[in-house]
Predict the 3D structure of the following.
Amino acid sequence: MGRTAFFNQRFNSQITHMLKRDAKEVEYVLRKARENDVKFVRLWFTDILGSLKGVAVTIEELESALIRGMSFDGSSIEGFARSSESDMYALPDPTTFSLLPWRPKTNAVARMFCDIVTPEGKPFEGDPRAVLRRNVERAATLGYTYYVAPEIEYFYFKDSASTTGLDDGGYFDQDPGDLATNLRRETVLALEQLEIPVVFSHHEVSASQHEIDLRHTDALTMADTVMTCRVVIKEIAVSRGYYATFMPKPIYGINGSGMHTHQSLFRGDNNAFDDASDTARLSDEAKWFIAGLLHHAREITLVTNQWVNSYKRLVRSNGVDPLGYEAPMYASWAMTNRADLVRVPSHTEGREASRRIEYRAPDPACNPYLAFSVMLAAGLEGIVNQYPLPPSAEANVLDMNDAQRTAMGIESLPLSLGEAIEESEKSTLVRNALGSPVFDSFIRNKKIEWDRYRTQVSDYEIKEYLPRL
């Protein structure tokens, strides 16, 4: 047997162990590609930090990619593998096939998200999509489907080298003639062409800051959707000569950008968080889930807020605004107060299926696969162990003093990336949720980032100290 024949035989035997792809789904993708004159298909996946990666294949190679996957050098992707174990395969998920609406219709371009598999055909433990899949499967063993609905905030700037905005609008302002509003309109239309349902979009609090709220769906689909949404927002901005950023706090003194995430658990068609017999219409499972989020909040913040800049957002505004920058600083919960980490939106009679909780710490620069994983893991830990729910902080938690917060058992979130690393590194929950390969690589990467940041000499230090020291 020749070397090529031997390799093909070995490879085909490995394929049988890969994630199964339904033949009908594969045929559907091939037919849709032919009907829409698709020439290129972008195979997307993310690295551990949530950066979008990918390779493009031509239509001639699409069937082979769908069945066998496309090989790539995993050592070149942050956190995926050491160079000695670099061979990986990107195996497209047929259910994620969509045309990219900003590309020409002739020789069109489509995209699919991929699962990463090893040369042995097994799901790769370092794949963020695999991490989330493991966590939602754990929820399924407990009888739950995990639904999420994020609010994605971001800024439009004139370019990537400055923070010069495109408008001076404020919260819910309507100006159909301004540039940013038109960009947001085009973005929503593009998302709808990708069959991504948008609940609504609006101008946010800060000048040139906008928000797009996505319709709730299962967590894995939503993580793919968040990644797609970020691409669409940036692509539409670039196509008009501008820049969109998900940097959590690009401008001092105004609100930063968050990704408040609404969450619910369902048992079949029934919302497990709803209980008509409870005065707050919250089931025991909902209360335990909230308690789990609060109990493990300090541990999971490194994942939901993974950058140095993330902690410039999680601050209060010098006591001027009682709601601070509407970003949480403390692990508290309330039914309506927007200063708290967990908010329970008001109940609407007749809409019991919409009962949910809102976790307000994440920012839009997180890796959604990992962020959804740790939030789910924390909530499930609360359910499994039936954590008692602490009293709600209906008074503004920012107006309390330290003694009052301590008496209520309210802890602060980490104040810096360095503190968040210390909390997460000792967390068994985060290690179990991410798996040791991703956990170790993530911690290692964040330590490097923190060391680079803390050894820099900033403009603030030069202006503050050089003239007088």
About this structure: Confidence is low (pLDDT under 50) at residues 1-18.
